[in-house]
Amino acid sequence: MRFENILNRIAMDPTPTSDYAYFKNLGVAVCFIRKNGSSFLKHYMSCLDQGKEFQPPTTNPHVPRKRDSLNARTSNLREISAIFSDPSIPKVVIGRNPILRLESAYRSRVKVHNLESYNSDYSGGWVAIRQQILGWKLGSCAADPVEAVSKGISFQELAEYVVSTPSWELDQHYSPQVYFAATEDVEYSLVGKLEQLDSFLSDLSELVGKPQLEVPDGYRVNSAKASEESLALSGDLKARIEARFSADFEFFGYQS
């Protein structure tokens, strides 16, 4: 199954992640897709599951702890695979407009090193991403780290790289959402949109039997508007980007 292949890939990732999680007390399994409000949603769901009042995270929500949800980094991968294959367990995923998500990934993971308050010391991922993109451009496996840090990368170059690279080689922040969510293998009970987060949380409230869930006051969830760079894309490249993410547009119900 494709889902098991993705789990195995996560198991080999040097950075601990918990993008597939089962919240025992809520009785729901969630696939968290990077750049789709995943930091907020992981922490929010963890607070709900443990009956805690929401407070902004002080540690990286992407790094699981033993007392948190059952997930792909703190449990047996077969157990997670079984949970996501069990038709009796509700499964949830939230998507984002593919073009806006790609732009957001470019601004925070490629163009600059966007530090979060809870992992401000980590920069290795940013360098590695730039090495991959520049290496592809230069026809090599990976660019020199110094060159990767010093050279600029345009949104157009990222788009060309994403269009030309297989999904399993792409970083999670801009790989196709349906690939990471394994939509061919997993049947989701609730599919939401980041741009309609309030509606998604309302549906999630009903699914888990909780009072109306809302985004906490003053808490900012990542979102984006079309940038000047993306608006300036050539018609051919824009069409190829839309074709690259055509399954995302269809599954999450976006118009290309």
Distance between the termini: 29 Å
Contiguous runs where pLDDT drops below 50 for at least 5 residues? 117-122
Radius of gyration: 18 Å
Count the DSSP helices.
Answer: 12
Mean pLDDT: 81
β-sheet strand percentage: 5-15%
Strand order of the largest sheet: 3-1-2-4-5
Helix percentage range:
40-55%
Please report the total strand number as a whole number: 5
Which term fits the overall shape? globular
Helix and strand sequence: HEEHEHEHHHHHEHHHH
Describe this structure as you would to a colleague.
There is one protein chain. The chain has 256 residues and is an alpha/beta fold. 45% of the residues lie in helices and 7% in strands. Strand 1 (20-23) and strand 2 form a beta hairpin.
What is the topology?
Elements: H1 2-12, E1 20-23, E2 28-31, H2 38-50, E3 70-71, H3 77-85, E4 91-95, H4 98-111, H5 124-138, H6 145-150, H7 155-164, H8 177-181, E5 190-193, H9 197-208, H10 228-231, H11 235-244, H12 246-252
Helix pairs in contact: 7-11
